[in-house]
Amino acid sequence: MNHPLIVAASAVRLKAFAPYSRFQVGAALEAEDGTIIVGCNVESASYGLTLCAERVAICKGISEGFRCFKQVAIVTDTPQPTPPCGACRQLLWEFAPPFYGAGSTPAVSREGITYVLVTAARRDVGEQDTLYAVGPNGERRWACGLGTGSSDEIMSAPKIDHSGYVYVGSGPRAWCIVGLGGPATSSWPMYMRDAQNSGRAR
User: Fold this and answer.
1) How far apart are CA 70 and CA 32, in angstroms?
2) Residue 77: inside a domain, yes or no?
3) The domain spanning residue 38 has which CATH number?
C-alpha cells in the first residue's frame, strides 16, 4: 500500500532495536501541517523500560515543536492488526484530539476483514461514531455511521458471531451489522477472545 504514513512506518520499522522479542514495529504520525514524524520500538533488558514505536514518534514530534497529530500508522511484520498499548493510547488521546480516545480494539473475521469502531471527535456538534470495515490489503471496504451519542458514552469493541454478524453498543444503543464471515481462527480474533467475552485463549 502506498499511503505515505504506511511507507514511512515501514521504512523506520527496519531500524527498530528489538533484540529480545525480535518484533520490530514502526509508527508514523501526521502533524496538523502534514509533517510526518516516525518512530520505532526500542527494547531494554529491563522490560518495563522498553519504548513502543508510537510513543517514540509522539515524543520525537513533541521535541520538534508539534502538539497535535491527525493520524497514525503502525506497521509490523505480522498480518494480524497490532493496536497500540494502553500507554500509547493515552498519549494518542492527549495529543491527537480528533481520535477522541482513538479506536476500539479491532475484531478480525475469517475472511480477513478487520472491524474497528472510531468514536466521534465532536459528539457535541453532531459528529457520528463510525464502524469501519478494512480489507486484508488495508483498504477501507465500508463505513457505517452509528449516530451521535452523549459525550460521556463509551462504545463497546466490535464483536463477531459465527454467522458473521457484527455487534457494537453503548448504554441504551446497540447495532447488529451484516459482516463477512465469522471470527478469524486465530487465538484472539477480538476483544476478550469471543462474543461471549470468555477471555480464554484457544
Assistant:
1) 6
2) yes
3) 3.40.140.10
Q: Which residues pair with 159 in a beta bridge?
A: 167
Please classify residue 119 by burial: count the beta carbons closer than 10 Å to its beta carbon, then call 0-12 exposed, 13-18 middle and 19+ buried: buried
CB 147 within 8 A of CB 155: no
Give, for all 202 residues of the chain, the pLDDT tens digit. 578 999 999 999 999 999 999 999 999 999 989 999 999 999 999 988 999 999 999 999 999 999 888 889 999 988 777 878 888 888 887 787 544 444 677 889 999 999 988 776 555 555 677 888 988 887 889 988 887 666 556 678 899 999 999 998 876 788 899 988 888 887 767 766 676 667 665 5
Question: Catalytic one among 30, 43, 54, 94?
Answer: 54
Residue 43: inside a domain: yes
54 a catalytic residue: yes
The neighbour count for residue 187, using CB atoms within 10 Å, is: 10
CA proximity to 38, closest of 17, 19, 68, 10: 10
- If one counts the domains in the chain, the total is 2
Alpha carbons 82 and 57: distance in angstroms, whole number: 16
Give the range of the structural domain holding residue 192, as residue numbers without chain letter.
103-196
**pTM (2 decimals)?**
0.54
Q: What is the pLDDT of residues 86-125, one digit of tens each?
A: 888 888 877 875 444 446 778 899 999 999 887 765 555 5
State the greatest distance between any 2 C-alpha atoms of the chain, in Å, as a whole number: 49
